[in-house]
């Protein structure tokens, strides 16, 4: 499958590497073509992938993973290009973290809006599925890293896209269908993004980013 | 133990009733002394408690449980009186939910501040422990209602107060010490209050408010 990863940070690296290992045709996009971070990643996967600017990546990918820094996601997607993203599933992973005022970060948008919604509004013909934003990237690609069942919460306006993403997360990373909770339309991004305020503090207290929540009934 | 419950809503009722059943000397406070909701509750516990205005309740209680409507908590606590709350532990349960603009509610304060912090700032000599705000009141008083272990997240500036609250939650309701996570100082209220945006949507999707999260490592 032709997959575009937007973003050369930790999340893009983890997802990109795993997808290359699975034999997919992966391109990693960045603000500038041939960025140092992109070249480093390409080297780390033995050259078995491509790198390019955001628009090249979005054009190449049949499915697009937004692993950008949340504060820059909209700018990155604009550069990727509305036409190149049209009709495609965008797995929207980034969180609108504002680290400019110190730690712990606050959110650049929350409560009455969310990054997921901002992106879906600006790219109405892209099938945005907010997913994976509630966990560390090591857990994203290997849910079995944690002991026992735990849940992933996704949302989006396009039901078929959510079904497809649920299947892909199973196929790619081993996420069990019964551990993926559909929280509703894209406005539910407010819930999963605002959870970051809790997640970040739990990270501090637990001393590891390798954790997740299980919904107990 | 002399316990003050501030608020006559669903949470105040559930906690008050359980504490009366345990044989504690409970007073339920409301904005006006002898409120209808207060009288109804008093009748429901067979008259084995007291009711009064917020200030009477705060004066009587050796420990105070804030079960008010979050949008009115500060006003209620002002009426309870700073002097009457001085030196006491305040288990601060309410969330700053704004239901005035329809469902799902938003928060009246979040991201860079929280209700827990607002209260601790305004009542610096009260030992505020934010607790129980991440679960439905039926689960608060009976954690065994859910199948399997699940976690309660508390925070506050006063370590001794948190230790005491942890012990009381075990004694009163059966919360196991190992399932109570201390998230740090009162600013961590931002995390547990912002989690409500997720909790409310999970309630809708799960079709029941009787759930909680377990932290899986």
- Identify the overall geometry of chain A: globular
Uncertain stretches of 5 or more adjacent residues of chain A: none
Strand order of the largest sheet of chain A: 3-2-1-4-5-8-9-10
- Cα separation of the termini of chain A: 37 Å
Structural class of chain A: alpha/beta
> What summary fits the major beta sheet of chain A?
8 strands, mixed
Largest chain-chain contact?
A-B, 39 and 39 residues
Radius of gyration of chain A: 16 Å
Number of DSSP strand runs of chain A: 11
Account of the 3D structure:
Two copies of one chain form a homodimer. In chain A, β9 (152-156), α8 (159-173) and β10 (180-182) form a beta-alpha-beta unit. The longest helix of chain A is centred in the C-terminal third of the chain and has 15 residues, at 159-173. With 217 residues, chain A is of the alpha/beta class. In chain A, the strands form two sheets. An eight-stranded mixed beta sheet of chain A has the order 3-2-1-4-5-8-9-10, sandwiched between helices. Chain A has a two-stranded antiparallel sheet with strand order 6-7. Helix content of chain A is 39%, strand content 20%. The first copy, chain A, has helices spanning 10-21, 36-44, 54-60, 73-80, 82-85, 115-122, 137-141, 159-173, 189-194, 196-206; strands at 2-6, 25-30, 50-53, 63-66, 89-92, 97-98, 106-107, 127-130, 152-156, 180-182, 212-216. The A-B interface holds A 106-107, 110-112, 146-150, 153, 181-184, 188, 190-192, 194-195, 197-202, 204-206, 208, 210-217 and B 106-107, 110-112, 146-150, 153, 181-184, 188, 190-192, 194-195, 197-202, 204-206, 208, 210-217. β11 of chain A pairs antiparallel with β11 (212-216) of chain B.
